[in-house]
Amino acid sequence: MDKKYIELINKAFEIRKSAYTPYSHYKVGASVLCKNGKVYLGCNIENGAFSPTICAERTAFVEAVKNGERDFEAVAIVTGHEDASVTEMGSPCGVCRQFMSEFCKDDFKIIMTKMSRDGELLDSKMFTMNEILPDRFTLNS
Q1: Which structural domain, as residue segments, surrounds residue 77?
Q2: Which one from 46, 57, 88, 102 is the annotated catalytic residue?
Q3: 57 is catalytic
């Protein structure tokens, strides 16, 4: 895997530690790579009312978009229970897929990972936006 994607994964692993998950204890970190090389980070933030909860992928994209970014290359995602010795290879939820598709082209890369508690990359899978959300909804369709 390309070195820039390894670095992206490591940033997602680190920001995952900032997740606020008092209910599920399921922490998610995401890092978004813009085509200009800038990286934006996000983590999930839960809420007792549940529907106001926001996913890591969306917090990273919100940060990027509010800073004027519109050209994206990839997102790395690290997910799993806070007490697990190995993270899970979690996939973006449907809301995050649709949210990302607003800003990402068909070849945008989604990197899902499995990591040890100490940050060692054990496995990864890479998909394109078109693979995880084919025939997606757009107002221009």
Answers
A1: 3-132
A2: 57
A3: yes
Q: How many helices (H) and strands (E) would you count in the chain?
A: 4, 5
Do the domain assignments include residue 105?
A: yes
pTM for the whole thing? 0.94
- Of 111, 5, 105, 21, nearest in space to 57 by CA: 111
Per the model's pLDDT, the better-predicted residue between 24 and 139 turns out to be 24
pLDDT recorded at residue 1: 86
Give kind and range of the element (H or E) at residue 98.
Answer: helix 94-101
The pLDDT tens digits of the residues spanning 101-117 come to 999 999 999 999 999 99
Q: What is the pLDDT of residue 137?
A: 82
Q: What's 101's domain CATH number?
A: 3.40.140.10
Total structural domains within the chain = 1
CB 127 within 8 A of CB 110: yes
CA distance 45 to 57: 11
120, part of any domain: yes
